[in-house]
Design brief:
This protein is α+β, with helices and mostly antiparallel strands and 195 residues long. Helix content is 32%, strand content 26%. The chain contains three helices and nine strands. Strands 1, 2, 3, 4, 5, 6, 7, 8 and 9 form a nine-stranded antiparallel sheet that branches. The longest helix has 38 residues, at 134-171. The two termini are 29 Å apart.
């Protein structure tokens, strides 16, 4: 059964491991263009004695047309913000309010979750410190907003993740656009041999 380890944690998964998993299952989110510098950020879950990470995807224009949640395990990570705080790059939905919008921080696709060993990820710390650059401060502010929004939906995300995982493992049927968890768990177990 998938659960939180303790509290909700954001983690960054090793890029070489993500490349390796993508070679085993192309549903693992990785592209040779731009992904080497891009962190694989996600929500950490525990499944018996194996960790799973559900990736957080940066907000994109296409997400404006998404519902807040879908029965197939897609969720938007959103928050209400003042309209005066948005920029040209902000992805948001109108909510019929002159002063506020629903900002889309990220999207979650539970079907793309991956198994990971504890030496292949690092907990993301997003407390702001004095030596942070302005860019780093802004990124940490965004991460804090994403985290607070995820806390509100984490129980629904875990429930959906557990349902999808359990169904795939019991039936052996891998749904369209879904990672193959059994195959990825085997790849995860074999990864240390290659290191």
């Amino acid at each position: 059964m998938l659960t939180l380890k303790d509290n909700l944690e954001f983690v960054n998964v090793d890029t070489e491991y993500i490349k390796y998993l993508h070679q085993n299952d192309n549903e693992v989110q990785y592209s040779s263009i731009g992904y080497d510098e891009k962190p694989f950020l996600g929500m950490l879950l525990l499944n018996e004695n194996m960790y799973y990470v559900i990736p957080l995807t940066s907000a994109k224009k296409k997400h404006i047309n998404w519902k807040d949640r879908y029965s197939d395990g897609r969720f938007l990570v959103t928050g209400i913000e003042q309209r005066c705080m948005i920029t040209a790059e902000t992805i948001y939905k109108e909510i019929g309010d002159v002063e506020h919008i629903k900002r889309i921080y990220a999207a979650i696709d539970v079907k793309k979750m991956i198994p990971v060993k504890d030496d292949l990820f690092q907990t993301v710390r997003f407390n702001i410190i004095e030596t942070d650059s302005e860019e780093t401060k802004n990124y940490k502010i965004l991460l804090n907003k994403e985290y607070q929004a995820c806390v509100k939906i984490v129980d629904d995300v875990i429930k959906k993740a557990d349902t999808i995982y359990s169904k795939q493992m019991s039936t052996g049927k891998v749904l369209r656009f879904c990672a193959n968890y059994k195959q990825l768990e085997k790849a995860c177990q074999n990864y240390n041999v290659q290191k």
